[in-house]
Structure formats: structure tokens, C-alpha cells
Amino acid sequence: MRRTWRFVPLGLLAGLVAEVAVFVLVGQAIGFAWAVLVVFAASLAGLLLLRREGMRAWRGFRVSVESQQPPGRQLTDGLVGLVGALLLAVPGLVSGAVGLALLVPPLRRLAGAGVQRATERRVSSMVAGDLFGPRRVRVYRGAAQPTTEPGPSPQQPRQADPAAAIEGEIVEPGR
User: Fold this and answer.
1) Among the listed residues 3, 5, 7, 4, the one whose alpha carbon sits nearest the alpha carbon of residue 15
2) For a surface tag, which of 38, 59, 86, 126 has the fewest beta carbons within 10 Å of its beta carbon?
3) How far apart are CA 36 and CA 26, in angstroms?
4) Across the strands, what pairs with 76?
């Protein structure tokens, strides 16, 4: 985790350089007054969307809690919407484009799935189950692999206990 934080200042600097470069290119293409107007309009739209997305996220969270459903999906959808609106509100063309992309439903679902996977990796399985609901597990029963320990006779290896370990995969509900 510490390694990741080491690159944050470098990433912020690269983002700032990209914002300035894109602004200069757009300013040369359409005129600097129009470029400033586009940045201002995008920031204003982002501020308006920030309030709407915040209310939408809070409403979805309350509905899921009141209906005793896991709130994880509403939280991730709300978080992605808030980040998209915040990026749109921040003055800049690149951040505005990324923020606008996060508000488009297919990309929003994709980003929400990424946030969910990252959350599930970082929290315990019990907390992930409380957030995102129970998981269905598909179990494949196959032939047990022989172990190297001798069985009843020295020539015949003992079979592993099939109840001791079961291989399987986790399948998301509804997929």
C-alpha cells in the first residue's frame, strides 16, 4: 500500500500537465474564450450533478437498508456517480471528460464492478458478504488426487479425503 502512495504526487503532476496541454490545444482549435467557457460550463454542470448524485446515492442506500438488502451495490454505484460528478466539477477538460464518462451507465456499471472487486479483495469475506450479499458457490466434484502418503498397502497410495477440500468457483448472483 505504501508503494502506491509514493506515486500519487507524480500522478497529480502528470494530470496537471495533461490538463494544461489539452486546454492549450483546445484553445488553439476553438479559441481561448470558448475553451474557458466550455471549462466553466462543465464545472457548473458538475456542481449541479454533484448534488443530484449525492441525493441519489443516499436514497438508494436508505432504500436498501430499509428493505434489509445488502447496500454494497448502491454504495458502489453512488460512489462512482459522486466521483464522476466531482471530476466534472473540477475545472479541466480531461477531468471533465473522465467524469462525464463515469456518468454514462455502461461505463458506470463497469467502474462499479471494479470498485466492488477492489473492496472484496481488501475486506474480509464476512464484511464483503454483509456489503454485497451472499455468494453462490458452484462446486465441481471430481476424482480425488492421490497423496504421497502410503495407504493400506505400500504399493497403493492413499486417496485424499474428498470432504477435506473442495475445489470450486464463486459465481456472482444473476450472472
Assistant:
1) 7
2) 126
3) 10
4) none
Report, as an integer, the average pLDDT of 140-144: 61
* Domain segments of the chain as ranges: 41-152
Give 10-60 pLDDT, tens digit per residue: 999 999 999 999 999 999 999 999 999 999 999 999 999 998 988 988 898
CA-nearest of 63, 62, 38, 115 to 84 is 115
The answer to whether the beta carbons of residues 110 and 103 sit under 8 Å apart is no
Distance CA 43, CA 48 (A): 9
pTM, entire model: 0.69
Strands (E), the chain: 136-139, 146-150, 157-159, 168-171
Crossing angle (nearest 10°) for helices 105-122 and 125-132: 150
E strands present in 15-145: 136-139
Distance from C-alpha of 72 to C-alpha of 75, rounded to nearest angstrom:
5
Specify the residue for cell string 448472483. 173
